[in-house]
Every structure is written in structure tokens, then in C-alpha cells.
Amino acid sequence: MTxxxxxxxxxxxxEMHSCRTDDGWRIALYRYRPKGGAAEAQENRQPxxxxxxxxxxxxxxxxxxxxxxxPWLAARGHDVWTVDLRGRKRAGGRLGRVKLPQWTFDHLVxxxxxxxxxxxxxxxxxxxxxxxxxxxxxMIGYCYLIRYDGQGISRMVTLGSSAVMxxxxxxxxxxxxxxxxxxxxxxxxxxxxxxxxxxDRLPARYFRSAANPDNVDREVLARYLWRGVxxxxxxxxxxxxxxAGEGGLVTRDGRxxxxxxxxxxxTPVFVVAGSIDRLVDVKAARETWEKIGSRQKRWxxxxxxxxxxxxxAHGDLxxxxxxxxxxxxxxxxxxxxxxxxxxxxx
Length: 346
What we know:
Elements: H1 3-7, E1 15-20, E2 26-32, H2 38-41, E3 48-51, H3 69-75, E4 80-84, H4 105-124, E5 129-134, H5 136-147, E6 153-159, H6 171-182, H7 188-197, H8 218-227, H9 234-246, E7 269-274, H10 282-291, E8 297-302, H11 316-319, H12 323-326, H13 328-335
Parallel strand pairs: 3-4, 3-5, 5-6, 6-7, 7-8
Antiparallel strand pairs: 1-2, 2-4
């Protein structure tokens, strides 16, 4: 079997849809219809939208052969939607000095997410949806709840997401002007593909920031690296440099400081963190949860100290060997449980 054959897989979505943002971008949506006998029992339940991270694509939720949260939920009778936010289909363009289409974190909050939520509600007839965001997907979810008063979202789960940033030196903020004016675009998608081809030869330390090698199979990680990683435009990188320097989520012009407005969130929220996540500080995620104003919110850290079989890193929340037993059922219960089960968990 060649390396390319080993990395080949097909996602399990049933339908492909699209919507257009108010600034003209076409966004791709993928629907997983409820499966099995459980589907009938779920007919009147709200659809759930899964939103990927900042350097990811929709494949983060479905790595083929039933691996991922999207097929897991669909197999249990839920109507599941994944999305490729702007830039994903164009991220693999020509090399050299040709720049990627330029956009920032603000565009995702102001244009992409409202368009996607409207589309899912329209196509399903649902008054509101449930939302699950990983990494940046959770971050734009927080901003959406603040900016639009949670319109169209019943409950939200964030995985490895924080609105607050800790331990970032002030000089990082100065990178924004360099990135914004000069580039370069961050072609981590190309590096990821190279890593996928040589995954068996790479020392574990090379991918510890993405996953705990004791908790994620290398073949699964290779699939993600091959199809689940997207390039980052320079202006988006510049915006994140500002976010890091400011201490939390802010608009590119600095006028809206979302991380200081978390008390406005009234939507039920479940904040999940990995105990050894190197990309999102657990203390910052905890502080984010504490500042959220909703009376119906939950907090959970996954790791050995909390009863799990392994410590969880950033990607483990999606593809950890035991996530299907230790995490996914808890998310399902939160999203479709009664109010009595939404009490705070400290």
C-alpha cells in the first residue's frame, strides 16, 4: 500500500449544501442525516452545527471509517452539519508569492457564522440549532453569542477554546503590522501534508502540540494532517497576533473587546478543556467559563487526574482513542438534556 492509499478516506456526509455571506463568499455545508432506528426518536430535536478550528477544515469532524464526532452523532439519530469556513476551498492554490484571499477573524464572526446559522435553520425548519466549536470554532461562537445575543443558538459546547489569553508577551501584538503589510501567508497545510507522509518516522515531540501520542493513533493523526489542515492568510495571522497581545478576543481595530463582555452570554454553555493542551491554556479556558454570564453552564477538564484513561491534548478532544466513551456522550447529554441537568459543574 502506498502512502497516498494509506491516507485515502471518504467522509460520511449524506448531502452537500452551500450558502452565501453578505460580503459575497460561498460557504460549503455538509449534512449527516440521522441514522438507524434512533432517527425516528430524534425527529423533533434540534440540528447540531460543528465548526472547525482556525487552521482546520470540516475533516476535523470526520476522518472516515466512523472516526469523528460527526458520524458518531449521526449514528445516534441526530441531524448533524459541518462547515468549511471561508478560504478552505481556496487554501490549496498556487505556491510562490501569490497571496491567499485575505480576511480576518472578524469576517468569520460578522459574515460566515450568521450566514451558516441562517442556512441550517432554513434548510431544517428549526427555530434554533445547537452549536459545537473546536478551538477557533468555539472562539467565534463566543463572539457570536455576544454580538448577536445568541440569536438562533439554543446551547453551545466549546472544545479547547478560550476567549482569554494568558502568558503572551506584549511584543507579540507588534507582529500584527508585519503580517498585515508584508505577509507571509502561513502555509502550514503544506507542512502538514509532508508530516502525514512521514508520520511513522517522526518523533512524538513533533506533534505533541496537536495531540497526545499516547491518546491518538498515528494513522488517525496522519489523516487529519493530510486533509484537515488549512493555510492561514497573513491578515488573519495579524489579527490573532493582536488578540494574543491584547489578552483576549478583540476585533481587529480593537474597539470591541469580546473577552471583557463574556458576562453578556446567557445561552447555556459547556466549556471543555484538555489537561495537557499546549495550544489553549487550561487556566484561560477556566477563566473564560467563570466570566460567562449564563446561569446554565458547565466546565470540564479531561485528563488522568479527572478520571480519564489518558491526558487530553488539543486534538484529542476530537479523535482521542477514548473520546467516544469519555467525552462524546457527555456532550450529547448536555445538548439534549432537560434544564435540571444543566447545573454548574465545578
